[in-house]
Structures are given as C-alpha cells and as structure tokens.
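Researcher: Good morning. I'm working through a list of sequences from a screen, and I'd like to move beyond sequence-only analysis. For each chain I'm collecting a predicted structure so we can compare shapes side by side. This is the next one on the list. No need for commentary yet; just the structure.
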Amino acid sequence: MKIISWNVNGVRAVAKKGFATQIKNWDADIICLQETKAQDAEVKQALSDIADYNVYSYSAIRKGYSGTSILTKEHPKNINYGLGIDAHDQEGRVITAEYDSFYLLTAYIPNSGSELGRLDYRKTWDDDFTKYLKTLQKKKPVIACGDFNVAHQPIDLARPKENYNKTSGYTQQEIDGMTALLGSGFVDTYRHLRPDEKGYSWWSARFGAREKNIGWRIDYFIVSDSFLPSVVDSFIMPSEMGSDHCPVALVIK
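Model: Good morning. Structure tokens for this chain:
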C-alpha cells in the first residue's frame, strides 16, 4: 500500500496545475492533503475530475485558510474530524481515518508565525496532539502524516545555525514538542530509514531557494513503534511541482 502526503498550498490552485495527472501517475492507495485553503464543497469541486477516490475534507471556519483532506480508494471504517477540543477544531487541521489494522491521520500543525506570535499556542497544540495520538494508539497502531511545521534535527534544514530560535519551525520549544511526540511510542519513518540523508520537503518562495535546494524537511510520516515492521519505505518526492512543499510518501505491507 502506498500513501502520499502533500501540503498543496491551495487545492484549487494545484488542481489547475495538473494535479489529476499527478495523482494518476502516483497510483497511490491514499492521498492526504494539507492547507487546502477551501471549504468542503470547494474541495470536492476542485477534485471532481479525479476518479477512483472517496474524498473527505475538513475546512476551517475562516474561508481560504488551513484545511485538510483525505482521498482514499478504500472506504475507511470510520472518519473523525478534529481533536475533539474546540479551541483547536476551528481550523480544519486533522482528519482521522480508521482502517482495519491502523488509524491514519492527515495533520496540518499550526505554524508559530513569522514573529513567533503563536508559539505559546503551538505548545498547547503539540501537547494535545500528542495526547490524542497516544489515546488512538491504545486501540490500534497509528500513522500520522502531514505538515508538522518543525525541522526536528539540524540535518532537517539547510541552514540550522541561522534559523535556530529565530525562525518558526526551528525553535527549541517546537523541537521539544516533536521530541516528546517521538518519545511517546512513535517513529519518524524517513529518518529511521535514512539516518544520514539530507532531504527537504519545503522551500521558501524567495531567493530561488528551491532551485538552490535551501530547504527544510517539515513534512513527515510518523508511525507507532509497533507498526514499524510493516514499513517498507519512506521517501520524499522533490521533483513533484505545484506547491512550495513537495509530497512525501510511505509504502507499507
């Protein structure tokens, strides 16, 4: 089974850039999207020419902001929207699909902001998100994918010294949040399989960062420790265009 996760930076925008063809070429069983920037009806309209997938979307109350979606060939046993915490569930950031042998989440973790104005909120989110995953994990293994808006280790961004504790996504508080999550019985699949590989999934739109590969790895597939034997591969797809992020993929057996 192949699962692909992508922060599309606007599903309506990416739909105009050949997204249907990309999906056909990927031949993935499940596709998880983040930052759809559209209401539920607009998501389904944007994806209306994509066959063979059931579409589930979760939009923010604020129009044109945030939002997540799951495209899946197999009907899930259940779908759940949000974390069940009203303070977090205004922005359409998490969808949980239950399958026979695992839970799958698409998650768009809040950005702490250019001036780190949401850093305190981000800590609360990280704590509550980790608790949510731990609760799910008591029932069956969890696969959590999406834009986690943090580079966990220096290898995960091109310029760690310049950005440490100055830039959203690489403050010690955000790093600690990811460390706590991974310490709760979860594994970063890409880093587990590729401990020394430098790969990035997001690039600034400025200064030709993507062409120069001055990037960050902030998009992840995280799985329960117990599910690790089922992981065949975890990789980044930097040649796929259409967003300031590229897709990441997980292959499981």
